[in-house]
Amino acid sequence: MESLSALQNKNGTAPKNPLCEFCDDLGWVVKREGSTRCKCLIQKIKIRNIGEEFADVKLYHIKPKNETQTKIKAIMLKNPYGSYYIYGDLNMGKTHFLSALYNKALDDGYIDTTRFTKDKIFKKHITEWNFDREKYCPINYELFENREIKWLFWDDVGKSDMSSFFRQEIYAIIDLFRSNPNTFRLVMTSTFSLDELASPDYLGSSTIRRIEDLCEIIRLK
Ligand SMILES: [Zn+2]
């Protein structure tokens, strides 16, 4: 096979990234039993949302640094489809555990029904939906209510300020989750404890109580 630099020299210009050998970059692979998403598309979604660094993290690859992490890994291996609230200081592995669960969800085929968000993006989607219903809105209450989204990954909770409108929307979504714990899955990470997020300026205690009911609370240290 010719090397990339040889190709570059022959054409005079740098070639584009080679097309995916399975789907020609269309994102779909056509099989007799129907079309399926190509792995390259799943990889692109992972990289866009959690970044290249975490796109290949798998639960069984995680090397626990201490007893707590060993325990958490065991809990998650046993129940990778569980709901979790993961909190702790920076660099304690929150994103690793979240990424492992997120990657598994996508690898298992839950692409359309899984959403990843961070505070700021979440707020933007919800606000856009409220003020301009014509806009494409990847995350809003209605999509959960219609079961179009069933799995929410909410990373780094507590980073942005909270408007009362956003707070109400989050409450409605979490309340729906709590009432249908077998349908919905929620994975959150934060540097804050739930007690801290329960402040009336932030999520408020009724939302926090529902998160406590729904999620296994995990403190990384
Ligand atoms: Zn492909």
Helices and strands in order, then pairings?
Elements (H helix, E strand, L loop, with lengths): L3 H8 L16 E4 L2 E4 L1 H12 L16 H12 L5 E5 L5 H14 L6 E5 H13 L9 H5 L5 E7 L6 H16 L5 E6 L3 H4 L7 H10 L1 E5 L1
The site of zinc ion (ZN) has 5 residues, from loops.
Give the full name of the CATH homologous superfamily of the largest domain.
P-loop containing nucleotide triphosphate hydrolases
Q: Identify the strand order in the major beta sheet.
A: 4-5-6-3-7
CATH names the topology of the largest domain as Rossmann fold
Q: What is the total domain count?
A: 2
Q: Could you say what the CATH architecture of the largest domain is?
A: 3-Layer(aba) Sandwich
Main sheet attributes: strand count, strand direction, barrel closure: 5 strands, parallel
Overall shape: globular
Structural description of this entry:
It is a single chain. With 221 residues, this protein is α/β, with parallel strands linked by helices. It has two domains: 1-52, no CATH class; 57-220, P-loop containing nucleotide triphosphate hydrolases (Rossmann fold), CATH 3.40.50. The protein is built from nine helices and seven strands; from the N terminus they run H-E-E-H-H-E-H-E-H-H-E-H-E-H-H-E. It has helices spanning 4-11, 39-50, 67-78, 94-107, 119-131, 141-145, 164-179, 194-197, 205-214; strands at residues 28-31, 34-37, 84-88, 114-118, 151-157, 185-190, 216-220. The strands form two sheets. The protein has a five-stranded parallel beta sheet. The chain has a two-stranded antiparallel sheet with strand order 1-2. A hairpin with a 2-residue loop joins strand 1 and strand 2 (34-37). Helix 7 packs parallel to helix 9 (205-214). The model is unreliable at 1-9 (pLDDT under 50). It binds zinc ion (ZN). Zinc ion (ZN) is lined by residues 20, 22-23, 38, 40.
